[in-house]
Write the structure tokens for this entry.
Amino acid sequence: MAKPALDRTRITRRGVLVAAAGTLFTAACGTDESNSPGPTTRGSEELIIGASLELTGPGSAHGVLQERALRITVDTLNEEGVPVGNLRRRIKMIYRDNGSRPETAAQQATELISKENVHALIGGITAETSLEMLKVAQTEQVPFISLAAADGIITPLPQRTYIYKLQPNAEDVARMMADLLAAKPKVGLIYSGGAYGQAGLAAVRKALGGKLAAESQLPPTGSNVSTAVRKVADAAPDAVIIWAQAPDSGAAVQALRAASFGKQVVFDPGAVADDTLTGDNATAAQDAFAIHPSSLAGMSLTDTTMADLDRRDFIYRYIQKHGAFRGFAPYTSDAVRLIANAARLGRSVDRGRIRVYLENLITEGIAGSYDFQPIKHGGMTADSLAVFQVTNAAWVRVN
């Protein structure tokens, strides 16, 4: 299959935003830490963050990778501590496994806030766990950074004032897919259920318009996907988009190939996990494309910015500890760095001040760039995305 020329040369905001970030960290706040909700912990030397992650269950394909990234970054930051006011605070990270169950994630969020007195929360790999966690975080007025992709996590904004997300917006991903498939007159879509899949469905419909010839929703994780996949394959599209997180993405592409569909396949970022390139999945996914943050390409010795150097250091530590770096964007790494930066800039671990400084952060992280504003709480900037192709069980960037 010929690789498309996708040199998306354009004037991007990314470099401008990062270059200007130092001048845009000035948020209007009072100086009295007692004015905002949550513990002020004036005498504490810890920045306490709670994480509820999918370490078991259907979301574990991504959850385990995010836990690894989080532990590496917390250890790195704790080597010198986080300067907050007159103190250098150590990050105290409290980990919980929600088992990919929304009700468990909500319970853990409640306990982390009420019993552990966390200053901020991270978690929710799946849309469903995030949506339950954010209800608790918003009610208790605790900053929460979601690791899920559904756009509804941060909207409507008046009801999500303490909520942020890092994954790319569905509309940005779908727009790149439309560019990639510009020469294909008929496109099929296979998407997962729930808020995640619905966001993808809406975005793809908007981006492709009349070119979308067939669509089908996958059954719950672990179910037989053959019937849902065959519905799209039988429409004989020129390409198929699979909008589903691992392991559903691997099951879908296997079923597509089993249905004798040999044409182009495009994954959304949720497919980019080790599971998708493991065993029989790797053969089925060969030559498929994926839209994903460009950090997936790894590191280069020519990288010279502070963000590049941080990324290189992170990847080096990850390889040292786990043997290989592939198949995901380390959103948890960026989440803990964003919280630490907000506490540093606000000179306080007060929950309200962390929230105010979070929504004025413009920064480039390990996974990509973020441009938070009072009217926008996520996700990753569109120019952080790139196109990759599966080549010999590896994700290779397409230029």
User: Anything to note?
Assistant: The domain at 14-168+301-383 is CATH 3.40.50.2300 (Rossmann fold). The first strand starts at residue 46 and ends at 53.
